[in-house]
Design a protein that fits this description.
By secondary structure, the protein is of the alpha+beta class. Among the domains are: 227 residues, FAD/NAD(P)-binding domain, CATH 3.50.50.60; 80 residues, Gyrase A, domain 2 (2-Layer Sandwich), CATH 3.30.1360; 96 residues, Elongation Factor Tu (Ef-tu), domain 3, CATH 2.40.30.110. It is built from 18 helices and 37 strands. The strands form seven sheets. Strands 1, 2, 8, 9, 10, 11, 17 and 18 form an eight-stranded mixed sheet that branches. Strands 5-6-4-13-14-15-12-16 form an eight-stranded mixed sheet, with helices on both faces. It has a six-stranded mixed sheet with strand order 28-29-30-27-21-31. A hairpin with a 2-residue loop joins β9 and β10. α1 runs parallel beside α5, α1 packs across α8 and α2 crosses α8. The longest helix has 21 residues. It is globular, with a radius of gyration of 27 Å. One of its GO terms (molecular function) is 4-methylaminobutyrate oxidase (demethylating) activity. It comes from Aliiroseovarius pelagivivens. Its EC number is 1.5.3.19. InterPro entries: FAD-dep_OxRdtase (IPR006076), FAD/NAD-bd_sf (IPR036188), FAO_M (IPR032503), GcvT/YgfZ_C (IPR029043), GcvT_C (IPR013977), GCVT_N (IPR006222), TrmE/GcvT-like (IPR027266).
């Protein structure tokens, strides 16, 4: 007999696992009481019931990750007091071990950052490590990193406690109800239909269906790239003397975590070469289900896991458990409002961390639903970051095996994914490969990272946090940009044509800068939300009275497109066309850029005829291309937007003629080092939606008095009216030329910690590592404080003296750019 369901709810949540119950709980905490949770079977019956329940920080590399984690740890530790239902949380401690110098260095880099954000992680000696985990063979351990407040919880108990809390706040939870369809009208979610034909209308629909989310979303045209994979843990028989308070141990060298389990030891695997499960879809009737273990495949990984705890071999195996967990292509969850349907939200793809991060994610999503703006940065988890190819069967099949091992193994700053590659390739790819390009992957694009002298040398000999084999080749590219001229393939940049009678209205509404400019000009601008937080930084070019071009980094492609579409008002006529596949962007930069361009075009490239921040159609050889005089590297130069069918010929011509001027190919490492010397900002890397242009030093691109205003204008006006901010983005240069910066290094002023770097690189022209980051004081951070203060940056536990600056340390007067 079908259950009688309400016909309407303010919010309907699909899925009654950790994420669904967390979202319902946090919605009620924000005052939304008309919430309905629909669970196809029983609460926790999907993957929540078999989770290991680890409440441990791991290695967290962003403020958002730290906030999501600490919220969950604190909530689970205290939830029973509110609901009366225990969570099983016990702060047994969490121990990470390092058995090589690179791992020690990595941990020492991140530990201060994590401490800054409320996680009490500290280094301990090998002896102290062994004392904390006496069952292990830790003879090869060089250092341990310990968090005494971390621990474990019971996943079922946690979820039931959350469900009780949600119901106490007014939510209704219905088990045994399968949602078969998300209802929509005119691009907006309007409710759900159940398998027995009942309909619930709703203002908001939330997909928290775990590994079922992809196939449910696909029915509504929603792109949710996630894939279930086999996930193993082994539980031994009882071990005499094993303490119930044994800390959780994580060992990247064996890809295993270890914890006590009812008198035995649990060995949890995150093995390389994992096995995707049910590529064609998860069965609807898979409930409290297990997968038959593949002993042959997992045997070698178990052998390695046992090598850390050899005494455990003396007792029997109580259980080898295999159950599915869902993973995403970049190992970050899928959260937020879907670009395909308004008022349809999602939180899934938790990468086996649904208990650990469920509370923080539920809080973020609840804020998103209620107010439209989460309190933390969501650029790294926003569901709109993916394109449809990552959800194809072939992509999920090929990327899936790499994901578990990538989560748990040793990490390096420039090591990307190795599977499901060569998807988005510039038409220049083969030319660049022949010229010695080493390709990194970014949002599906194959991007030249640096160039070796020959194609055979275009490889990383050994990953390291120190200088790698390509460092000197990259330095030569950098110097060529500052002394001669470089050529860069920037086809990855996302390019949109925005046209129609209301195109100007849309661009003006979104842009902080004035975009009602003459055709032939372009402007740099930020887009912000109603609170003044960044949503994009990009260039807007006026091609004609009713036609614009928007150019933004590949990491912001989906978000930028979604933001434009969502802000076209009813009755307005605007057509947005994606031009990225049709245009190959070739950048020419350096003091000899003009000399090179004058050799290949009949156009007048002089400063007077072609000033900075303008564009023209020019001939290059046989072809007519759009040339934009703009830079992200701080040098004279042009970005050439070439029809892709002509790109190889244009590139070959530039390379041939450029020999006279010392032209070199340059990659993304050089782009990063050049732009950091110039202190150029980059949304998604340096600034995010919790930052604003005023504090980020981009006030010059904010025109508060422009006619008609813009989204976020009032918030930015209020921030500016306060005067000199306490929180400001600064550029830093290390005095010692040896240490390297990558981001997350803590900043000290007069011995007091005041911030951390967002990103770092090596400033070959400035003679040391450079980075940019926010520093925050209890008083206005004035220019005199910046200039007169004693600044240091902490690198792997050592403080290094640094110069701080509000203005770019390289060419602050823009003389080179405007030459």
């Amino acid at each position: 007999m079908a259950k009688t369901l309400p016909t309407h709810a303010q919010t309907v949540i699909i899925g009654g696992g950790s994420i669904g119950c967390n979202t319902a709980y946090h919605l009620t905490k924000l005052g939304m009481t008309d919430v309905v949770v629909l669970e196809r079977d029983q609460l926790t019956s999907g993957t929540t019931w078999h989770a290991a329940g680890l409440i441990v920080a791991g290695l967290l590399q962003s403020e958002a990750e730290c906030e999501i984690y600490t919220h969950g740890r604190d909530l689970y530790a205290n939830l029973e007091q509110e609901t009366g239902v225990p969570t099983g949380f016990r702060d047994v401690g969490y121990l990470q071990i390092a058995n090589n110098e690179e791992r020690v260095h990595e941990m020492r880099r991140l530990a201060p950052f994590m401490r800054r954000h409320g996680i009490n992680i500290y280094e301990i000696s090998p002896k102290e490590t062994a004392d904390l985990f006496p069952i292990g063979d830790l003879s090869d351990v060089l250092a341990g990193f310990y968090i005494p407040e971390d621990g474990r919880a019971n996943p079922v108990d946690v979820t039931m406690s959350l469900a009780k809390g949600a119901k106490m706040g007014g939510a209704k939870i219905h088990e045994g109800v399968t949602v078969s369809e998300i209802l929509a009208k005119n691009g907006t979610a309007t409710g759900v239909r159940t398998a027995d034909g009942q309909t619930i209308t709703a203002e908001n629909v939330v997909i928290c269906g775990g590994m079922w989310s992809r196939q449910l979303g696909a029915k509504a045209g929603i792109n949710l790239p996630l894939q279930a994979a086999e996930h193993y843990y082994l539980i031994t028989e009882n071990i005499d003397g094993l303490s119930r308070d044994l800390p959780v141990l994580e060992d990247p060298s064996t890809y295993t975590y270890y914890r006590e389990e009812v008198g035995g030891l649990m060995l949890g695997l995150f093995e390389p070469g994992a096995a995707p499960w049910k590529l064609d879809g998860i069965p609807d009737n898979f409930t409290f289900g297990e997968i038959e273990p593949d002993w042959d495949r997992v045997g070698p990984h178990l052998e390695k896991a046992y090598s850390r705890v050899p005494d455990a071999l003396n007792v029997g195996v109580r259980k080898l458990f295999c159950g599915p967990e869902s993973f995403t292509p970049d190992l970050a969850p899928l959260v937020g409002e879907t670009p395909e349907l308004r008022n349809c939200f999602v939180a899934c793809g938790m990468n086996s961390l649904g208990i650990l991060n469920g509370a923080g994610t539920g809080k973020v999503l609840a804020e998103w639903i209620v107010s439209g703006h989460p309190q933390i940065d969501v650029t790294g988890i926003n569901v709109n970051r993916f394109t449809r190819h990552e959800a194809t069967r072939a992509f999920r099949r090929d990327r899936g095996p790499e994901l578990l091992g990538k989560m748990f193994g040793q990490h390096f700053h420039n090591e990307g994914f190795h599977t499901a590659r060569d998807l988005k390739r510039s038409v220049l790819h083969d030319r660049l490969a022949a010229n010695g390009a080493y390709f990194a992957e970014g949002h599906g694009w194959e991007m030249p990272d640096w160039f070796a002298p020959t194609a055979e040398q275009a490889k990383i000999e050994e990953y390291s946090w120190s200088r790698q084999n390509w460092f000197d080749w990259h330095a030569e590219e950098h110097r060529a940009a500052r002394e001669d001229v470089i050529i860069m393939d920037m086809s990855t940049m996302s390019k949109f044509q925005v046209e129609g009678p209301d195109a100007l209205a849309l661009m003006s509404r979104l842009s902080c800068n004035e975009v009602d400019i003459e055709p032939g000009r372009l402007v740099y601008t930020a887009w912000v939300n109603e609170k003044g937080g960044f949503e994009a930084d990009l260039t807007v070019t006026r091609l004609a009275e009713d036609r614009f071009m928007v150019v933004v980094g590949e990491n912001s492609h989906g978000h930028t497109l979604m933001r434009m579409k969502r802000h076209i008002h009813e009755g307005e006529v605007v057509v947005i066309t994606e031009l990225t596949p049709a245009i190959t962007q070739i950048n020419i930069h350096g003091p000899k850029a003009r000399m090179l361009m004058e050799k290949v075009t009949s156009a007048d490239m002089s400063n007077e005829a072609f000033p900075f921040m303008t564009w023209q159609d020019i001939d290059v050889g046989y072809w007519v291309v759009k040339a934009f005089r703009v830079t992200f590297v701080g040098e004279l130069g042009w970005e050439l937007q070439v029809p892709s069918y002509a790109a190889v010929q244009v590139y070959d011509l530039l390379k041939e003629v450029g020999q006279e001027f010392g032209l070199r190919d340059a990659g993304m490492q050089t782009l990063n080092s050049l732009r950091l010397e110039k202190a150029y900002r980059d949304f998604g890397l340096d600034v995010d939606n919790t930052d604003n242009p005023i504090e980020a030093g981009l006030g010059f691109a904010v025109k508060l008095e422009k006619p008609g205003g813009f989204i976020g204008r009032d918030a930015l006006a209020e921030i500016k009216a306060r005067g000199i901010p306490n929180n400001r983005m600064l550029q830093f240069l290390l005095h010692d030329p040896e240490p390297l910066l990558y981001g997350n290094e803590c900043i000290y002023l007069n011995g007091v910690e005041v911030g951390h770097l967002q990103v770092g690189g090596y400033g070959h022209s400035l003679g040391g590592a450079v980075g940019i980051g926010f520093a925050e004081l209890d008083e206005p951070l004035t220019a005199s404080i910046v200039a007169e203060g004693s600044w240091e940056v902490e690198v792997a536990g050592a403080r290094v003296k640094a110069t701080a600056s509000l203005k770019p340390l390289f060419d602050p007067g823009m003389l080179k750019v405007k030459s």
